[in-house]
Automatic annotation (TrEMBL):
GO terms for biological process: aerobic respiration; respiratory electron transport chain. Its cofactor is [2Fe-2S] cluster; [3Fe-4S] cluster. This is Succinate dehydrogenase. It holds the Pfam family Fer2_3. Residues 160-190 form the 4Fe-4S ferredoxin-type domain. Residues 13-113 form the 2Fe-2S ferredoxin-type domain. It comes from Nibricoccus aquaticus.
C-alpha cells in the first residue's frame, strides 16, 4: 500500500509502464522518471509530463486513453500498482493524484488485463465488448409517445434510488480487470437493473436480461464466484447486490421463456 504524502513539495517517482506496440506484438515493462511532480497534479497529468519528455528526446510517447478527466466517461482505465484505477476507493484513474504516492516511489502501470479486452497499444485496450453487450438489450425500444407529465407514472422511491445507483455505472471495465475470472457480471447487472427497476423497462424485461447475459457469455467473460473484487474496484461503488438481482431476473425470464416455447410447440402440434 502506497502511503500518501502530505507535503506540498514536488515529488519524483519512477513509473514502470507496460509498452506494447500493437495487438499482435510482445509487450514489456519500461521505466521512466517523473521528476518534480506537483503533488496536486493528477496521475494522467503526470503521464502527460513524461510523454512531453519522451517526445522531446525523440522517443515514442506512452499511449493511454482519456477523455473527460472528471471521472465520468470511464476511458482512463489503468491498473496502478496492481489495482484498477489506483490505490483509492470510488475514484477513476484520472481522479488519482500524485499526492497519493511518496517521493521516490516506483509505480507500476498496466492496461486492464482480460481476454475480452485485448491490448491495442501500451495502456489502451479494446473494450468494445461492453458496447456489444449494451447493444444486445441495454435500451428501451417500446414507443411511449410524448413525454408523460411529471409524477404521472408512480415509481417507489426505493426503486428509483436503486435504478439511479445502477445507472451510475460508467462502463470502465474495472470490475472485469479486478475479477480473477474476468467476469462482467457487475457491469451487466447494473445495465439490466437500471431498467428492470422502472415501469418503462418492464415490456422488454425478460428478453433484455436473456440477450445481454447470452452476449456476455459469447464474448468470453468468465463466471462470477462472488468474491466481490468487482464492487471493491468500481469507481462508482456499484453494489454487488445487483448481481443477485440480475440472477433472479435471469432465472425467472428463462423459466417464462421455456414455458412460452413449450406452449407454442404444443399449440403447433395440435393444429
Amino acid at each position: 500500500m502506497v502511503a500518501a504524502t502530505t507535503s506540498t513539495q514536488p515529488i519524483s517517482v519512477t513509473i514502470r509502464v507496460w509498452r506494447q506496440s500493437g495487438p499482435d506484438q510482445a509487450g514489456r515493462f519500461a521505466e521512466y522518471k517523473a521528476t518534480n511532480c506537483n503533488p496536486n497534479m493528477s496521475f494522467l497529468e503526470m503521464l502527460d509530463v513524461v510523454n512531453d519528455d519522451l517526445t522531446a528526446r525523440g522517443e515514442e510517447p506512452i499511449a493511454f486513453a482519456h477523455d473527460c478527466r472528471e471521472g465520468i466517461c470511464g476511458t482512463c482505465s489503468l491498473v496502478i500498482d496492481g489495482k484498477p484505477h489506483g490505490p483509492h476507493k470510488g475514484v477513476a484513474s484520472c481522479q488519482t493524484y500524485m499526492r497519493s504516492f511518496t517521493d521516490g516511489a516506483v509505480i507500476t502501470v498496466e492496461p486492464f488485463r482480460a481476454a475480452p479486452f485485448p491490448v491495442l497499444k501500451d495502456l489502451i485496450t479494446d473494450r468494445s465488448a461492453f458496447d456489444k453487450i449494451q447493444q444486445a438489450g441495454g435500451f428501451i425500444s417500446i414507443r411511449t409517445g410524448a413525454a408523460p407529465d411529471a409524477n404521472s407514472v408512480p415509481v417507489p422511491k426505493e426503486n428509483a434510488d436503486l435504478a439511479m445507483d445502477a445507472a451510475a455505472c460508467i462502463g470502465c471495465g474495472a470490475c472485469v480487470a479486478a475479477c480473477k475470472n474476468a467476469s462482467a457480471m457487475l457491469f451487466v447487472s447494473a445495465k439490466v437493473s437500471q431498467y428492470a427497476l422502472l415501469p418503462q423497462g418492464q415490456p422488454e424485461r425478460d428478453q433484455r436480461v436473456l440477450n445481454m447475459v447470452a452476449t456476455m457469455d459469447s464474448l468470453g467473460f468468465g463466471n462470477c464466484t462472488n468474491q466481490y473484487e468487482c464492487s471493491a474496484a468500481c469507481p462508482k461503488l456499484i453494489s454487488h447486490d445487483f448481481i443477485a438481482r440480475m440472477n433472479k431476473d435471469y432465472l425467472a425470464a428463462s423459466f417464462r421463456n421455456a414455458f412460452k416455447s413449450k406452449s407454442a410447440a404444443a399449440s403447433g402440434g395440435g393444429a
